[in-house]
Amino acid sequence: MHEMDRYDVVVIGAGFAGLTAARELREAGKNVLILEARDRIGGSTWYQPDGFDGFGLEMGGTWIVPQQTHVWAEVRRYGVAIKDSEMPSRMTWSDRGEVLESLLPVAPHEYEQLEHAVRSLIEAASRFDPLRPLSEQDVADLDVPIGRWAEDVGLTGNAKELMISWFCGCANADAETGSALDVIRWCSSMDSSLWGMVQASVLGFTFVGGTASLARAILADGGAELRLSSPVRGIDADEKGVTVAYDGGVVRGDRVLMTTPVGVWQDIEFTPALPADKLAMSRENHAGQGQKVWALARDVPADISGFGWGTSFDYVGAMETTERGVVLVCFAPEHDRVDAGDLVDVQRAVREFAPRAEVLDARSHDWVHDEFSKGTWATFRAGQFAKYELCVGRPEGRVHFGGSHTARRWRTFIDGAIESGKRAAAEILAAAKES
Ligand SMILES: Cc1cc2nc3c(=O)[nH]c(=O)nc-3n(C[C@H](O)[C@H](O)[C@H](O)COP(=O)(O)OP(=O)(O)OC[C@H]3O[C@@H](n4cnc5c(N)ncnc54)[C@H](O)[C@@H]3O)c2cc1C
User: Which of 53, 42, 48, 50 shows the shortest CA–CA distance to 16?
Assistant: First the structure.
């Protein structure tokens, strides 16, 4: 009879969480196998070097900032090249498709409203410590839908519209679903700075050779065995170990580390079954159900950085100028706001920020309908902090749980994925010692 392959740890998912955990476990002398469903590593980051006219496109995670100490340390460790964003000379504001010719997004008589909006954000961000679980701090009043928070703090006019749209942009979620707390956390993680929050979203550093350059470096250093195109279907744990069934075979591990997005858990057959809270989280899924669309356009300002409300995209920003035009990165808080496969529709949405734009090309990945993601980044729905913040990363016997959704300071970011990979590896090593 063929002997089943045996490993100390089977890591499920080759995103930044899985790759980091595998490296840490290998460094501790463990025998590690990574099973990855797709035919590539990187998970929710996906660099396509053949992008537009030689400018490579990040279909998923892109920007990092020095305050993200885990990813920053990895970049330094491997000497991976990154570059800072070029600052736009001005911001563009689109009020329901009408571009405002003003320095600030509101008329002078509404400046006070804008001040109030910024103050409300900073005050809220200063109320908690992003390094500790938010469900253990006194901030349940902030774990409400984005639109409700704007109402609660008494925002009005364009300041309110902009704030809601900005929060939805950060959440990649709509105003009725996304948790305001999960967005305010960004500000808190940047020492309660609004400017810091903008940097962490779309004006931070990018990878010169794509996020893949860092993912490859971590994988190569760790030297774990990797099987691609190997979606896991079943996880069967007993007192002595865990049997993992995937398309292609069955392996046995002393312990398993799950790093897949939460929405995917429900599609895997767990024995014993997942506890009720984890299963409920998987079924509810998170609120990050929006779009990221790349467009190549003519007749667009070469440094456009546009925020809009009542528009299809909530952000349209220039990343590069090629021979044919300006490369734009665009976000929408719902997955069907723009038909990314239809240049006319993308052009319609871009024209809300640059009225004369002619869109020549567009590219996007539908993360929401991708069976191995079921969403973009894992912003909690309003109310999910209390119910699931601690449960998503809690081990279930020999099955451990990582992924950026289990991180603290930078959950939902690349940094959070790396933080979680380190945490999970340490947890597994400690548990292995005890047993
Ligand atoms: C459009 C978009 C834009 C983003 N922008 C930024 C940004 O600018 N900055 C930033 O820091 N972060 C950003 N993020 C978030 C960031 O990319 C993620 O938080 C991070 O990459 C998640 O890493 P992870 O390892 O936790 O999960 P993932 O990268 O999702 O890895 C999980 C892996 O599990 C695999 N998998 C799933 N199911 C199975 C299965 N059944 N069997 C085996 N394998 C399976 C998946 O294929 C995947 O490779 C963005 C994400 C998206 C989608």
Answer: 42
CA–centroid distance, residue 235 to ligand 1 (Å) = 21
pLDDT digits (tens, 9 = 90+) for 323-377: 999 999 999 999 999 999 999 999 999 999 999 999 999 999 999 999 999 999 9
Domain membership of residue 27 as a residue range: 5-44+210-286+372-434
Same-domain pairing of 274 and 404: yes
- Which atom of ligand 1 sits closest to the CA of residue 71? 11
Nearest to 35 by CA among 24, 44, 22: 22
Q: Which residues contact 63 (CB under 8 A, 6 or more apart)?
A: 85, 199, 200, 201, 202, 203, 204, 205, 206
In this structure, the answer to whether residues 189 and 229 fall within a common structural domain is no
The last residue of a domain, from among 202, 227, 250: 202
> Best of 33, 59, 377, 418 to mutate for ligand 1, by most ligand atoms within 8 A of CB?
377
Pocket of ligand 1 (CB under 6 A): 12-18, 35-38, 43-45, 60-64, 231-232, 259-261, 264, 268, 292, 367, 372-373, 376-377, 403-404, 412-417
pLDDT single digits (tens) 182-220? 999 999 999 999 999 999 988 999 999 999 999 999 999
Domain match, 118 and 195 both: yes
CA separation, residue 134 to residues 194, 259, 380 (Å): 20, 21, 12
What's the rounded Cα separation, in Å, for the pair 257 and 252?
Answer: 13
Residue 365 lies in a domain: no
